[in-house]
């Protein structure tokens, strides 16, 4: 009996002092991978890549708050992978050291992003697209993998919650619009990987999220 090969390799695990969810997305054929939000523990992330036999070619960020980047510089140094961010969050990236100081987190220098992410841009490995979903920050991005019914929402959407909008550049009207117009129009059966905490199901959030409901 033939074994069906998964269309994507996906592993999500918390990293760093603020337990940001880092996600590895790999192509089982080419063995190329992207890493989303390496928020610390670079050795752990590299070990998981090695376990799956993957080579990271692209490091992408849902946004530029400190807890989503802490291992980015080290990983770029070790792998040569390119760093990606939406340009609207450049002001946050330029002030990463200040953010770390405010939260009492050791700062590890990170080079400037290699490329700016664009709305509807195809991601490395050709397995997904970037969606600009501002609100938590001006440059917040979500990543949609249609074939796998997988949405990486960063700090835009949580299980029965949404991202806070009281930090630098946050805007409640924008996050509400992003969730309703960009995320809630996707497949209800999709698994949502959040920036912190457990996965959820998109249809459940559309109906039961107490902050933003579909059609409300």
From TrEMBL:
GO molecular function: hydrolase activity; metal ion binding
Pfam families: Lactamase_B (PF00753)
Residue ranges of every copy of the Metallo-beta-lactamase domain listed in the record: 19-196
Keywords for the protein's UniProt record, in alphabetical order: Hydrolase, Metal-binding, Zinc
Highest taxon of source: Bacteria
Organism encoding this protein: Pseudomonas songnenensis
Cofactor(s) required for function per UniProt: Zn(2+)
Identification of the protein by name: MBL fold metallo-hydrolase
UniProt-listed PANTHER family: HYDROXYACYLGLUTATHIONE HYDROLASE GLOC (PTHR46233:SF3)
Keyword Transcription: no
